């Protein structure tokens, strides 16, 4: 559900902190790094691309722009003879896609979560691929199973196929909620088609936008750099990569051993708060400095030694310096905002928990927190009972949750304005198809095929904004996937989704379904571009649910289905773009990438549904209980259903004049806040105002509203060391090892956490807790916080 340097001037090393994460198309063009169109082979007129001039891998240079990262951290080289079209790639890709989708769906119904990452998949796929390459090629059968040594393109194919499956589809959450709370069990065939269509709709939209969101050099997608760096290190000449491989496996091994200490033996290391240790009887200290457990506190000045939590939302080692600076500003403002709301008792904040995402009754007070009984305001048809709502009153939310809604809502509209002001050249291609000339050409069947291969090559090689890796692929003759492939995926998914909505009694009308997909298109374009440039991913789910509440008032099921296509589509689209960029950087052919993503998405959707159905059938009563067990929990479905009901009465809770009116007004404010900084920069040319991204700052002003916050301090320490000190003072180490070490830290941690999940955390059916001692303090079950901060007895 929901789930960042002082100085903006040049340093002695002449580094520009716009650097990685805030460059624009104009910055890229100024480098003039792309080839010029010249005559070749007697005046053919084709553009010439010299990859050797673009390949700067390992050069000791302070990297200032996204384009420089692409040419200094990743080799601009390719071996076209390497093929991903092998039985081994399809066999391992299918197997790991099933594994990843099943595991991700299982953990959706667990009290503790594990998220399948690309680094984890990369390590597992490498081990299995190398194992299969040991098969003797003694006859045709064995040669078919092992045609040649396991290569990087097979590996990339497997990763992308598994990645497309490694999500728990939002549509399975609704299908589970219908079964658990609405006494509805949709037809299995219709339900499976719903899951598939909801997954592929976002893929279709993002695929049509790939020329805007993936192919340009400015679209760095920083989240991919550890994986791509790891892939290169594993598969290039072992003599060349000996030192890098040695560093990777040493760090990987250290984390594989170390993580058992903070995760199981000594969990105090997840968040050490000196102030909590010094003063263990103050809720004020807990709220501000505690944070080693969910919804405990803001974690200010706490230090974490657990990489699982430090990198829970992504390793800080790949977050660009400009993005991290804005993150940090938002983080500090979040602490000020939340403490001000709570201790100013705004919206009766002190009558409810400091941090919580539940709905509360008006009888709640500082000593007894009374949850709102949602069954009192629902009719037998599962719509809102106005009489019951009038009798029981409008539910309350915690002040910190309202603060999060206000700042994130401002952030969503601020992001759209910011991208239009600063990055219009990057995103305008997404609207190019709306020009009168293009709309008219759609009526001419001769234009449906698009540009020829030669026209495409000339355009790409002459475009100064293009990623040199993509230019290399085009020049080497890799055939691009036609747009009509993605168009067919989009149209087929759209009509299948529309039909199944009525077949499973979703209560979402056809026009609401269309509106949700319009939002998905707009959000994929704007927030996909923002993630590609800055590495920052915006969570749009609360915004989509709120919009659904106003569009379909009193209909919680319609709200949830609107969210499936409005939010899940955006999320899937962003993952498609992320993986397309991985394929582009490792030079995997577009058609094999398309095949891997479509197969992975379909496999993942089918097994998501199968596992959801199995778990809900076998654990029905347990999933509906408040406590659940140490093995199974319905908390995620419960929260999703609660929010859908809350947003179904948005008019009573959030409209102008209502208690939480600023949640809605904040949308309008978000359109305004980026404009002054833009105008000030244009008139004064003061660099500080260019690098302030209000959309990122605003989202992080609500960052701490949920979860474990004790790791945030360590997150910024590691991030600033990597992206400022290491990048500017030791550029050679940064270029060669920063992203590789990030991958090793992630890989070692995730493999160990996966093992612990089944060995001691109850994933295999029985949990084995480490004996209670001062290093774990007994835990919440004994009404204690692990970091020794005071536990609030009103939390129950």
Question: Layout of SSEs?
Answer:
Layout: H1 25-31, H2 51-54, H3 66-72, H4 87-108, H5 118-132, H6 140-145, H7 152-165, H8 170-181, H9 188-208, H10 210-213, H11 225-235, H12 242-258, H13 260-265, H14 274-278, H15 283-289, H16 307-310, H17 321-343, H18 386-392, H19 399-422, H20 424-427, H21 436-441, H22 453-462, H23 468-475, H24 483-503, H25 510-534, H26 541-551, H27 556-586, H28 590-618, H29 620-624, H30 635-648, H31 650-654, H32 662-672, H33 674-684, H34 687-690, H35 694-700, H36 712-729, H37 731-759
Helix pairs in contact: 4-5, 4-7, 4-28, 5-7, 5-11, 7-27, 7-28, 8-9, 8-27, 8-28, 8-30, 9-24, 9-25, 9-27, 9-28, 11-37, 12-37, 17-35, 19-32, 19-35, 22-23, 25-27, 26-27, 26-30, 27-30, 36-37
């Amino acid at each position: 559900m929901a789930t960042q340097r002082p100085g903006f001037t040049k340093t002695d090393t002449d580094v520009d902190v716009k650097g990685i994460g805030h460059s624009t198309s104009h910055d890229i063009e100024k480098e003039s790094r792309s080839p010029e169109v010249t005559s070749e082979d007697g005046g053919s007129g084709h553009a010439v691309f010299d990859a050797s001039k673009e390949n700067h891998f390992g050069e000791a240079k302070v990297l200032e722009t996204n384009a420089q990262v692409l040419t200094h951290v990743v080799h601009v080289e390719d071996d076209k003879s390497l093929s991903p079209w092998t039985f081994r790639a399809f066999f391992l890709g299918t197997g790991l896609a099933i594994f990843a989708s099943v595991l991700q769906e299982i953990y959706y119904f667990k009290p503790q979560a594990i998220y399948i990452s690309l680094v984890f998949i990369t390590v597992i796929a490498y081990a299995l691929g190398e194992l299969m390459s040991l098969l003797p090629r003694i006859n045709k059968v064995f040669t078919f199973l092992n045609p040649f040594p396991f290569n990087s393109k097979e590996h990339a194919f497997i990763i992308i196929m598994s990645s497309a499956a490694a999500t728990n589809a939002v549509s399975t959450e609704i299908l589970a909620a219908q079964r658990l709370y609405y006494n509805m069990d949709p037809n299995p065939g219709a339900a499976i088609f719903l899951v598939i269509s909801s997954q592929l709709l976002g893929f279709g939209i993002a695929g049509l936008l790939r020329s805007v969101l993936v192919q340009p050099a400015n679209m760095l997608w920083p989240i991919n750099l550890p994986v791509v760096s790891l892939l290169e290190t594993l598969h290039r000449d072992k003599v060349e990569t000996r030192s890098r491989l040695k560093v990777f496996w040493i760090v990987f091994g250290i984390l594989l051993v170390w993580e058992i200490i903070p995760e199981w033996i000594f969990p105090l290391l997840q968040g050490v708060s000196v102030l909590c240790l010094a003063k263990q009887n103050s809720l004020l200290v807990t709220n501000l400095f505690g944070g080693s457990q969910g919804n405990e506190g803001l974690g200010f000045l706490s230090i974490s030694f657990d990489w699982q939590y430090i990198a829970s939302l992504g390793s800080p080692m790949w977050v660009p310096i400009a993005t991290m600076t804005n993150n940090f500003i938002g983080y500090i403002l979040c602490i000020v905002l939340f403490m001000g709301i709570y201790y100013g008792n705004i919206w009766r904040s002190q009558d409810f928990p400091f941090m919580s995402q539940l709905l509360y009754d008006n009888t709640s007070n500082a000593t007894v927190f009374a949850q709102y009984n949602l069954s009192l305001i629902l009719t037998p048809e599962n719509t809102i009972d106005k009489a019951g709502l009038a009798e029981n009153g409008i539910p309350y939310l915690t002040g910190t949750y309202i603060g999060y809604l206000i700042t994130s809502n401002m952030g969503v509209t601020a992001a759209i304005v910011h991208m239009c002001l600063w990055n219009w050249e990057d995103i305008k291609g997404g609207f190019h198809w709306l020009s009168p000339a293009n709309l008219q050409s759609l009526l001419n069947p001769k234009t449906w095929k698009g540009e020829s291969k030669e026209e495409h090559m000339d355009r790409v090689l002459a475009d100064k904004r293009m990623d040199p890796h993509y230019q290399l692929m085009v020049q080497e003759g890799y055939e691009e996937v036609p747009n009509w492939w993605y168009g067919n995926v989009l149209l087929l998914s759209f009509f299948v989704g529309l039909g199944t909505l009525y077949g499973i009694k979703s209560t979402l009308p056809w026009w609401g379904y269309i509106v949700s997909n319009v939002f998905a298109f707009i959000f994929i374009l704007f927030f996909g571009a923002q993630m590609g440039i800055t590495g920052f991913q915006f969570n749009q789910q609360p915004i989509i649910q709120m919009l659904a509440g106003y569009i379909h008032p009193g209909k919680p099921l319609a709200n949830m289905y609107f969210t499936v296509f409005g939010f899940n589509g955006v999320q899937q689209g962003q993952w498609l773009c992320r993986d397309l960029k991985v394929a582009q950087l490792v030079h995997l052919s577009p058609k094999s990438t398309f095949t891997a993503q479509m197969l992975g998405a379909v496999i993942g959707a089918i097994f998501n549904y199968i596992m959801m159905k199995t778990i809900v059938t076998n654990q029905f009563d347990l999933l509906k209980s408040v406590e659940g067990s140490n093995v199974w929990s319905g908390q995620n479905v419960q929260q999703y259903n609660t929010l859908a009901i809350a947003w179904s009465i948005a008019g009573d809770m959030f409209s102008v004049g209502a208690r939480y009116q600023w949640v809605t007004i904040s949308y309008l404010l978000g359109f305004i806040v980026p404009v002054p900084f833009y105008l000030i920069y244009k008139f004064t040319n003061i660099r500080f105002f260019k690098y302030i991204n209000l959309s990122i700052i605003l989202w992080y002003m609500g960052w701490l509203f949920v979860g474990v916050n004790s790791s945030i301090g360590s997150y910024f320490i590691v991030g600033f060391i990597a992206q400022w000190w290491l990048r500017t003072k030791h550029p050679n180490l940064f270029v060669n090892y920063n992203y590789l070490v990030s991958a090793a830290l992630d890989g070692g941690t995730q493999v160990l956490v996966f093992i612990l999940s089944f060995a001691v955390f109850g994933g295999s059916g029985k949990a084995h807790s480490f004996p209670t001692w001062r290093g774990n303090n007994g835990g919440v079950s004994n009404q204690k916080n692990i970091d020794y901060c005071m536990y609030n007895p009103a939390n129950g």
